[in-house]
Amino acid sequence: MKIIFYISLLSLLSLSSLGYAQIFNIENFVIEKDTIGFSGGIDLNISLVKNTKTNFSFNNYGYIEYRIHKHLFSLTSHVHIKRVDYEDDINNNSLLLKYDYQARKHLFFESFIQNYTNQVSKINNRFMVGSGARFQFVETKKFMYSFGSYFMYVYEHEDDNIGHEDDEDHIKVPSVYHNDLRLGLYLSSVYDLTENISFKLATFYQPEITYFKDYRFDLMARASLKIFKNLEYNISYILSLDSYPAFEVPTTQYQLLNGLSYTFK
């Protein structure tokens, strides 16, 4: 019953937000030490500012995974909403389904499917499917790191008219469609400084196979302070770089977040 409750809670938080939002490049910020059976967690970052305008921001990240023997199934979701005077200013979401198979002590094969939308980056839809290998090492009880590579197919629909359907002054730009093959390289690590303080770092590099000048780079860093057994306070920094973004979108974007996360194992 406890497992069903956690699954329901994760689904409710994610799906209720999807009604307002459209999810992010989570590519896999879940960096947990091996746990048999079910494990997962939810992050919540919420802010409300009222002055001449009402500013509301909601950032929800959740994951659940199930490990049995050498098999690991995981589902991650992310929703980010920012509303100014009840109008969407930022609206993005992502859903990632992944399967891992442990072939050797340190070698894992993995496959994934992800769907991603981002109103600010003018990405109406980005669908990704890929497969690759990951090497994972647990040096001590305090330190773990992994690195890997994968190939993936990316279908993307860029639409500069998102959010401007009723704006007569907005210059209409034709939609752009991409069908790319990309290489993915990543490195991630976890370090437990003390029983209550930990650090996580993940970097991702994704060049287009036929044109390496077209690449995407992501860096995600987090510092966590344990408040209770399963409750942590987090400060997270996310940097995203796209060498060929959509029309009038900057090549570099970043977020600095703070909030609470709840995990279960």
TrEMBL record:
Residues 1-21 form the signal peptide. Keywords: Signal. InterPro entries: DUF481. It holds the Pfam family DUF481. This is DUF481 domain-containing protein. It comes from Pseudotamlana haliotis.
